[in-house]
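Design request, tokens follow.
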């Protein structure tokens, strides 16, 4: 096989710019079939993105003769069933984060992958973006000396871009949790990417505003295997205009801070402040998709394995539901 021909399940907003077009922009890759249950919407998507085939039935897509690999871009509730169906058809899968509805579903996907030998990659794409690769480089260069602690603080208001109407991300039965389950996978995956595994973790969650069923406030602590202490605070009912997106790394010689959903790294060391700016990419997932294609072609390592993603799922589940 010299090219990966993709089938994409789900044509929601995440696929419009962040991922969908990238499948035709990376080498040795082509998006051939898209699927959505709404016939008019899937036809419109295929037409606008120049995808040659579209359908409304998931089994038709999975078994399509022009599909070699499957990208699952649905709500987490469907990830497990679709991933296993794809692997049963002997087709590798690239799954949106979070990997599945809960840890148990993730483990079943991973187990099927190991037993069948079919490859699975999870879309924790920030680890392949230049900003976060630069943070990793600074840490590997020992820029701050010994790292003592890591702090994540995310404060978002319930208004603005946090749409409360007909939003599946707020239904735990569909998403596993609330906005924490939607956004924290990016942040926690970076913690593991930078600092390795956690040896202990605990947290608590509550519904402070009562605007929807899922939790809207989460706190958590971890101790990493290298001795780094982690603390995280997430609130999705903060006051308007008081939004915060902070990832802070504190070492014996200074501090590195950046927004996970922004474009600048700030390095504070020896009384000096340096700001490193990165222009946002056109397609956030393009770098990772390139690595996924190379992995599926047998030309590269798995850029984000099921085991990598399960770490984040275990921690999120423990923070919100108190079980590991």
């Amino acid at each position: 096989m010299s090219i990966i021909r993709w089938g994409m399940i789900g044509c929601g907003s995440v696929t419009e710019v962040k991922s969908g077009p990238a499948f035709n922009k990376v080498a040795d890759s082509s998006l051939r079939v898209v699927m959505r249950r709404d016939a008019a919407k899937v036809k419109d998507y295929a037409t606008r993105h120049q995808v040659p085939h579209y359908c409304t039935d998931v089994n038709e897509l999975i078994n399509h003769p022009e599909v070699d690999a499957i990208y699952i871009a649905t709500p987490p509730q469907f990830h497990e069933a679709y991933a296993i169906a794809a692997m049963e058809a002997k087709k590798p899968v690239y799954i949106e984060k979070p990997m599945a509805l809960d840890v148990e579903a993730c483990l079943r996907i991973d187990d099927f992958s190991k037993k069948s030998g079919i490859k699975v990659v999870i879309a924790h794409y920030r680890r392949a973006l230049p900003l976060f690769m630069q943070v990793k480089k600074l840490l590997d260069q020992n820029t701050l000396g010994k790292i003592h602690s890591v702090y994540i603080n995310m404060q978002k208001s319930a208004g603005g871009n946090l749409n409360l109407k007909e939003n599946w991300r707020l239904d735990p039965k569909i998403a596993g949790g609330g906005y924490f389950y939607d956004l924290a996978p990016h942040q926690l995956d970076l913690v593991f990417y930078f600092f390795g595994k956690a040896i202990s973790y605990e947290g608590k969650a509550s519904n402070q505003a009562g605007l929807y069923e899922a939790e809207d406030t989460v706190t958590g602590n971890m101790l990493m295997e290298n001795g780094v202490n982690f603390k995280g605070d997430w609130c999705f009912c903060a006051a308007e205009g008081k939004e915060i997106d902070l990832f802070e790394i504190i070492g014996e010689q200074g501090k590195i801070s950046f927004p996970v959903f922004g474009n600048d790294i700030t390095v504070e060391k020896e009384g000096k402040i340096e700001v490193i700016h990165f222009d946002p990419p056109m397609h956030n997932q393009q770098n990772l998709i390139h690595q996924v294609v190379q992995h599926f072609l047998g030309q590269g390592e798995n850029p984000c394995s099921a085991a990598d993603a399960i770490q984040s799922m275990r921690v999120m589940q423990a923070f919100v539901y108190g079980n590991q």
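Comment from the thread starter after seeing the answer: thanks! The longest strand covers residues 147-157.
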